[in-house]
Amino acid sequence: MRVTVFGSANADLVFPVPVLPAPGHTVLGGPWRALPGGKGANQAVAAARDGAVVRFAGAVGRDAMAAIALSALRGAGVDVSAVAWTDSPTGAACICVDAAGRNQIAVSPGANALARADQVPPLAEGEVVLMQMEVPPEENARLIHRARASGALAVLNLAPALPIAPDALRALGLLIANEHEAAWLAAQLGCATSAAALHAALGIPVAVTLGERGAEAAGPEGRWRSPAFVPDRVQDTTGAGDSWCGVLAATLSRGTPLEDAMRRACAAAAIAVSRPGAADAMPLAEETDGLL
After folding, report:
1. Most buried of 5, 99, 120, 283, CB within 10 angstroms?
2. Residue 200's domain is classified under what CATH number?
3. What amino acid positions are annotated as catalytic residues?
4. Domain Carbohydrate kinase PfkB: where (predicted)?
């Protein structure tokens, strides 16, 4: 079954630095690189490289950055016919990565703010629809309700953590958050930060990624925990969460249970952090198979 990703596409300007800059601090680093990025595009590439049939809907500008933003999608065979071309500049991110692989990111949304849910073609029953929060939340909300009405599985990665209509949140088939996003949401709901507590508060399946401690999930069928895979070397953590989400969506689209999909997603994320960049770091299916 197909995976449809609605989300952001950026051109990432990546600066390797010895230490992350502090306020008022200028750091001289190594040669910078221009790479494709954006949470939506990263996750679409991850899903496609894991073997899913993927289409991407988002927005870019009519500028030189658009070719960078769309390059990995095209290279991975993602259908980009639903991408809107706008007069706004293509979204861009400035990413500093230190010697330990930690990152510091500033994002200018640009054309991503003009992405609209009605760009997404008709949805099929059983299709996985993957969203993030780098496009207008109200457009995500529209697509969530449309996916539910179509019998598709609506999956939202709450990254970055921003408000979305409560009725849309409770209409999801799966919510994904990292520890920081889970803590933000738990504060809004007045509950604990665990996947089980968030599931109880929202009434939907919830998965929480825990970095080097793996991931946990809770839903009507029970609770699950997947340990992390330890990479040989952590080079860049920028695309770890996007790799996890994209591969999870691809695996769910094949009818795999959530517990097994989480394990595969953890393996893919371990490979992604061992490489530089975001979209370009996403592993091929056979690489994840090998680690598993």
Report:
1. 5
2. 3.40.1190.20
3. 242
4. 3-283
